[in-house]
Amino acid sequence: MANFSKSNVPQFAVDVYQNEYLPEGGREVNAIVTVTATGGGTVGSAVAAPHLYSPGQGPSAAVALMVDCSGSMDYPPTKMRNARDATSAAIDTLRDGVHFAVVGGTHVAKEVYPGGGRLAVAGDTTRAQAKQALRSLSAGGGTAIGTWLRLADRLLSTADVAIRHGVLLTDGRNEHESPEDLKAALDACAGRFTCDARGVGTDWEVKEVTGIASALLGTADIVADPAGLAADFTRMMETAMGKEVADVALRLWTPLGTTVKFVKQVAPAVEELTGRRTEAGPRAGDYPTGSWGDESRDYHVCVEVPAAGLGQEMLAARVSLVIPEPGDTSRPSEAESGGGSVRNLGAQGLVRAVWTDDMTASTSINPQVAHYTGQAELAQAIQQGLDLRKAGDIDGATAKLGRAVQLAGASGNADTAKLLAKVVDVVDAAAGTVRLKAKVEEADEMTLETRSTKTVRVKK
Description:
Layout: E1 11-17, E2 21-22, E3 28-38, H1 45-48, E4 61-68, H2 78-93, E5 99-105, E6 109-113, E7 120-121, H3 124-134, H4 145-156, E8 163-170, H5 179-189, E9 194-200, H6 206-215, E10 220-223, H7 229-241, E11 245-253, E12 259-267, E13 271-272, E14 278-279, E15 284-292, E16 295-304, E17 313-324, H8 334-337, E18 342-355, H9 359-363, H10 367-390, H11 394-411, H12 414-420, E19 424-428, E20 433-436, H13 442-450
């Protein structure tokens, strides 16, 4: 996803929130890094009127819409019709000039439109043709999502564009290929396009769908009632059309003797990035963040520094934003890029460590760090609690989900608190005292699991 013109790139800013003071012997440094992109002109009016763009205006993009056409999409019969309507709504939201294709997915992947291994270019005529082609979609066959993703990748790779994006809809489990085959497909597609994944109904596997979105740096959600698909697809496509630049990496440079313990996105959702690091020269590594429009995200960086004496201070880490471009011959200085060939987006933040004998200074926890540590624990408590509930461990599930209720209330995460209240009866939210509900709607449990990683921002 290499090409972009500078006119398409919003302005990036980096803010670091931390308590830089460590006690004597202290080594762990935590910081919340807020990355904000502004000035792309993609939120609001441009998205609300997508057809105001003409070919050649705005960032170049390609989109592949992958629609589940397996046999289960016929139960109830309205599900397939809702999927067609939702895909039509997404096609209507495409900007003029955007390259696109529709893929029908069963145990094999089929080009629905335009066919011939090509992408169409969005305009009045091609949008109408694509919606006409959707009428031929019918349900029948199995589910092999890896084949859908590989076909989408082949189609998207034919376009010389800045943004490549997929939208995947499924209603069932990936039963016609092995987990290893799906993982191989995700590994092959990672970094080549981003993908939002949606599960419709309640017969699909949450960890499969969220795993797809996570691997491809997209969003995942449940649409329990198929009638809600069109509205969801429209919102999803509007967001995709708002992306201005792809392949942004958070570059972390650390001095000699410093170890990176973890890097994770903590807002708008918790996403572990530590294992996705790619080396970027001496003591520097890149962590992928995907595509950006006008938006803000928060990242939790934790590093371990060498012990130092009282009164000493050091730079524990330097954070910058880059777009790695292996073919770029205009190499920035090694100090700026870590030795790699990149476009540096000009935003930088510094993480510091200062050793002090002031106990008040060294023991206070930065509010942002405390908040997001709690949000990450909230997501983990929900997932563990639901797993224990499914395994029949009532006491374990009650303890974990009780802790989740406590954390959701303390952090002001009202949306998650409401979802939890559909799975447990809350006796005392502040104390985390709950009882598991005897009967829980499957859609409510799946919604809680799917949205468990969504976080709220720190109250300023």
